[in-house]
Amino acid sequence: MGKNDSVSRMVVTVLTEDYAGYDSPLFGSHGISLLLEICGSNYQKNILFDVSQSSDSILHNMEILGISPKAVDLIFLSHCHYDHTGGLLGMVKAIQKEDLPIVGHPTLFRPHYVLEPHIRHIGIPKESCPEKLGKLSRLVLIGTSFSLMPGVISTGEVKREVPFERTATLETFTEEHGKLIPDGLQDDLSLAIKMETKGIVVVTGCSHAGIVNIVQQAIRLTGEKKVHAVIGGLHLIDADEDRIHKTAKALMDLDVESLYVGHCSGLKGEAALLQLFKNRLCKLYSGMRIDL
After folding, report:
1. pLDDT-derived band of residue 41, with 50, 70 and 90 as boundaries?
2. Closest CA to 56 of 22, 91, 21
3. What backbone phi and psi angles, to 5 degrees, belong to 82?
4. Strand partners, 13
5. Which of 175, 176, 233, 275 is the most buried (most CB within 10 A)?
6. Of all helices (H) and strands (E), which one includes residue 218?
7. pTM of the prediction?
């Protein structure tokens, strides 16, 4: 990423999240969906980052917040799980742009299961199949890192180098040659945004690749060591206490300035982070606006 490839301003609006806040007319819904309004030196684009489990809650909240779906220029999907992709077809129909790019990993549409407490499919719902989406939008399925626009880069598949993050906290499976095999969630993608003066902002859906791995990859890709903010879910909800505390310490050691977390981060995860980061940690909620 070149010196001139940076973003002068970004505003993040939480369109929907597990938590709707206190005394709010907005809907909370399991999953997450963020609108990233990005201003570069000579462009302004709006990225819809994930689409929760239903477009109904997103569209309800957008109407209250005064945001038109047609303002969306691009959809970025962090991984295949239904609580990040379930609203895809509904949002594509609401956005109404024939050449709308939908960016995700090449294995995004694979069969994807958990076996506990019983087998169930947790991947993209079948109504959002590539055949339907291909008629209404443009699928951009890329597993390596690439620049979406100046200053904004997809991490691609994240290197899992941190010892305590080498495996995902959630055990999942896929189908291959008539067998169920472990699925390492290699499709877990995040965005690294290089701000003009503040450093990197990392936006993640669930951090199945490990948030420390993700931040380290963002640093490598951007060449910028200063991490201004991490925004999204950290999937510590089913992590043991050792991993939670190692994660919190590692983020502190990386000198992350601010954390905006929610969704799958879990109460114990948020509590451990709060203890270290104090007022530098904010809990995400539907309607939250983060002006960077």
Report:
1. confident
2. 91
3. -60, -30
4. 35, 289
5. 233
6. helix 211-222
7. 0.97
In the chain, where the domains are located: 9-291
- Supply the CATH classification number for the domain 9-291: 3.60.15.10
From 41-45, 76-80, 228-232, the region with the lowest mean pLDDT: 41-45
Kind and range of the H or E run holding 32: strand 32-39
Whole-angstrom distance, CA of residue 14 vs CA of residue 137: 23
Return d(Cα 256, Cα 215) in angstroms, integer.
9
Q: What is the mean pLDDT of residues 200-219?
A: 98
Tokens of 105: 């990993």
Rounded distance between C-alpha atoms, residue 244 and residue 175, angstroms: 31
Query: DSSP 3-state assignment of 282?
Result: strand
pLDDT digits (tens, 9 = 90+) for 161-184: 999 999 999 999 999 999 999 999
Angstrom distance (rounded) from CA 208 to CA 227: 20
What DSSP string describes 191-217? Answer: EEEEETTTEEEEEESS-TT-HHHHHHH
- Alpha carbons 91 and 70: distance in angstroms, whole number: 10
For the chain, the straight-line distance linking the first and the last C-alpha, in angstroms and rounded, comes to: 20
